[in-house]
Amino acid sequence: MRIFLSIAAMFTVLIGISTMAYAECAVSYTRTACRGQDATSYKKCGGNKSCTKIKKADTMHACWQAAVKSCNNGRLDITKYKQITATYNGRQLIGGFAPSGHPSNNGTNFCWGGRPDLNQCQ
Fold it and tell me: Three-class SS of residue 86?
């Protein structure tokens, strides 16, 4: 009986470890550059307007937080706007905004269009 319980416990641990290994937080970026700043704005996506990056997140909430943080824009004169979406283990997360940045109950974008660090091109 002890051998059976030991094997069952090991099996449970292995399943837990393998499940954690498959947790994936994919954050997708689409940038709108300020006039004349396309190359610089898109550099973070290898020169492309859009890309997806895998973030470290053990839970769906941690993935959601990573997506919200990805809206931050420290390059006010380079990137006009960002649209950020995210999936956790293939499941689309709801950010609360439409692609335009307007509030939307089922919107998958995490960036509010009225953020003070967006739409600041000069």
Answer: strand
Q: What is the mean pLDDT of the chain?
A: 87
Please give the structure tokens belonging to residue 67. 């997506």
In sequence order, the 6+-apart residues with CB closer than 8 A to the CB of 43 are none
The answer to whether 95 touches 65, Cβ cutoff 8 Å, is no
Residue 79, SS3?
Answer: strand
- What's the DSSP call for residue 68? H
Q: How far apart are CA 30 and CA 49, in angstroms?
A: 6
Tens of pLDDT, residues 81-100: 999 999 999 999 999 999 99
Tokens coding 109: 């974008």
Instruction: Quote the percentage of the chain above a pLDDT of 90.
Output: 80
Does residue 84 come out as left (phi exceeding 0), alpha (psi in the -120 to 50 range) or beta? beta
pLDDT digits (tens, 9 = 90+) for 27-56: 999 999 999 999 999 999 999 999 999 999
